[in-house]
Amino acid sequence: MTKQTGKTGSNLRIDGQALWVDLMETARFGGTPKGGIKRLTLTDEDRQVRDWFVKTCESLGCTVSYDSMGNLFARRPGQDDSLPPVTMGSHLDTQPTGGKYDGILGVLGGLSVLRALHRSGYTTRHPIELINWTNEEGARFTPPMMCSGVFAGIFTEQDVLDKRDRAGIRFGDELERIGYRGSEPCGRHPVTAYFELHIEQGPILEAEEKTIGIVEGVQGMRWYEVTVRGKDAHAGSTPMPMRHDALVASAKMIEALSQIAFAHAPTAVGTVGLIENRPNSNNVVPGETFFTVDIRDPNDTVVLDMETGFKKIFADIAETCGVTLDIVQIWDAPAVHFDPACIGMVAEAASEAGYSARHMVSGPGHDAAYLASVAPTAMIFVPCKDGLSHNEEESILEADAEAGASVLLRAVLKADAGFSKDS
Amino acid sequence: MTKQTGKTGSNLRIDGQALWVDLMETARFGGTPKGGIKRLTLTDEDRQVRDWFVKTCESLGCTVSYDSMGNLFARRPGQDDSLPPVTMGSHLDTQPTGGKYDGILGVLGGLSVLRALHRSGYTTRHPIELINWTNEEGARFTPPMMCSGVFAGIFTEQDVLDKRDRAGIRFGDELERIGYRGSEPCGRHPVTAYFELHIEQGPILEAEEKTIGIVEGVQGMRWYEVTVRGKDAHAGSTPMPMRHDALVASAKMIEALSQIAFAHAPTAVGTVGLIENRPNSNNVVPGETFFTVDIRDPNDTVVLDMETGFKKIFADIAETCGVTLDIVQIWDAPAVHFDPACIGMVAEAASEAGYSARHMVSGPGHDAAYLASVAPTAMIFVPCKDGLSHNEEESILEADAEAGASVLLRAVLKADAGFSKDS
């Protein structure tokens, strides 16, 4: 790395070893025997990691506050504290059988940025804030990205406070119980820029041997529930031409959806992830099949085109097979396009630091997708082994964690300088 | 019907109304609110219907005995009681949500034959026996056709006595408890001929508007369990060409199996009745799929040919889709061919009685399939509504019940005459 000086502060360095120690140390809170983490939102384990976060950020000269949704803000003062902060963030909660990096890398990577600033004594123009968003995973309380959603005005505070988990326990009560319900109303908090470091949760960077993903946005996504109804019949005594086999019809549809996604190469994906078959007995011709459809592309027009395509083909298959078809759209998340200036800062940061990089679009949703509607936003991806995520075997390289945090540091400093000029 | 006299006794007539009353009356034992029957083997309901059976047969001049497996034999003396009996039978047990006719029609149809003989005072040359086989359904204790299987030497008595239901209750203990464990060893019982009247459990007779199915045998059948293993992956972040989607591969296989069965028209059938998908989450590319394969044809060579065909195509699909394939055969029931003389007697009986009829092969297994290995055997089918069976909505016409019993009566008398000459 070339040593630089000047107001961009690019002589600052991430302590990769300290970042890795933080990752391993916090993995104790909810750590599983298989090396993953079970740290569901607003549990005792969530409180433990929050306590650790507050204490550690304070030791780096930050003040920590939390808003009415329990979103944590570790603030490091700037030269002009009247300016809205340049922010970084992600989430410390996990899936029930989650890994050590999904979300956590973004928070602890941000912490390593604060550490670099603290150690050097460098003072940014804007205040810098590191944010831990409450309940990104949506595993205990649905939907996911709940409290960045409130922050961005997507959900109301009261709706979220009244959400209940499967045991009937209320979100608001648990937030009070663990001591992280703050007085500042969620969302009354202007932001100069937001950067989120995250593992890719996909196989592309690893396959292409790239270190940094310059994330330009989040794919548009639609979800559907499909019910195919035929007629139960005895597998031994019902001649083939007299069948109304819901599963054979569904099989043709599943194959067709895959072909439609391939036909919209290179970025489109189409998935049937869940299927239920009734009565599901080995000697009964299936009378009813239920399955989900998930289609995504960075371009909403392509998503719409895939929808039109699969609906037409599914209807044709249903007619040919003598079954009925019911398709219900259950989710529509339009594509998110991150801020060109922020994307450019991430790209420059990766290039200046000498990391191999590629532009890409996120498949999964992230808190950044909601933040993009209220502040200039971009994301930074690093590779994860086999693209595996939401899994206790989730794994990344220590060098890639450091690389991601280094790009985050540089991007934050560029935003501090770049957006200062404009504001 | 032409009135006839003479030793074939074809002037005897089935009392269709009495048969229907018997069907409705016994349907009380285990009757369900939806009009079906839940009468699992060796339960109190099974005892109740057995008690009714014993009492009713005795009122028609029969003596009733039961063997060591609880198979019931209602015997009407013939002119020469040293001859092995001409027999009829089926089963009074049902599925957990069974109908009023599957099995029951064969027993009560046989009872209506005994009633016709009793009322006319006609004496056959052979003794006539009506048999209620224990546990045809296999719903409480597996496998099905358990005690006709012991009778035919397929299973050992001790193995069956030691079978346990899901609650851990032993077959032998339950048989003792309901009072139907007899002293006669099961199977030491020569038989001149065996006829079984049954509902078709398929749609062919109804579709072709035929009253009688002349059943020539039971299809050959093989069952397999197929496991397809790919790789779990995020549905949003895994490009189509990088997927190893177990469900897409399975979908192609399910469609291929259907095509193979169609290609072996007109009698072959191939069914995937059960499928389980893992992890079965709508935003995860499926990593593992498990499904069953059921292939049948009256000709074992065709069954083998289908097996060879689907194994080859499944392997090709697995290779194309980048998944592994594991196929395990779990059941092999070779085709059963009934006795040509008995089949001919059923055909003549239907023709002489003026019923429309067609030759056919049974898809499901029946007690007759095991009896065929120890005695000349044939079956008689009557239509059931929509081919529906193993269902509380199982339904037949009163006229078809009478028709089936009338053909059974004529066939029994033909066997009494025909086999007498030979023996």
List keywords for this structure.
homodimer, 423 residues, alpha+beta, Aminopeptidase, Alpha-Beta Plaits, nine-stranded mixed sheet, five-stranded antiparallel sheet, 35% helix, elongated, disordered N terminus, zinc (chains A, B), hydrolase (chains A, B), metal ion binding (chains A, B), Zn-dependent hydrolase (chains A, B), metal-binding (chains A, B)
> What string, H for helix and E for strand, traces the elements of chain A in order?
HHEEEHEHHHEHEEEHEEEEHEEHEHEH
| Overall CATH architecture of the largest domain in chain A | 3-Layer(aba) Sandwich
Distance between the termini of chain A: 31 Å
- Percent in helix of chain A: 25-40%
Structural class of chain A: alpha+beta
* Rounded Rg of chain A: 24 Å
Number of strands of chain A: 16
What can you see in these coordinates?
The structure is a homodimer of 423-residue chains. In chain A, strands 1, 2, 3, 4, 5, 6, 14, 15 and 16 form a nine-stranded mixed beta sheet that branches. In chain A, strands 7, 9, 10, 12 and 13 form a five-stranded antiparallel beta sheet that branches. In chain A, strands 8-11 form a two-stranded antiparallel ribbon. In chain A, 35% of the residues lie in helices and 21% in strands. Chain A is built from twelve helices and 16 strands. In chain A, helix 1 (16-26) crosses helix 3 and helix 10 packs across helix 12 (398-422). In chain A, strand 3, helix 3 and strand 4 form a beta-alpha-beta unit. Chain A is elongated, with a radius of gyration of 24 Å. Chain A has two domains: 16-218 and 335-422, Zn peptidases (Aminopeptidase, 3-Layer(aba) Sandwich), CATH 3.40.630; 220-333, Alpha-Beta Plaits. The interface between A and B is large, with 62 and 62 residues. Chains A, B: This is Zn-dependent hydrolase. Chains A, B: GO terms for molecular function: hydrolase activity, acting on carbon-nitrogen (but not peptide) bonds, in linear amidines; metal ion binding. Chains A, B: Its cofactor is Zn(2+). Chains A, B: Zn(2+) 1 binds at residues 91, 102, 198.
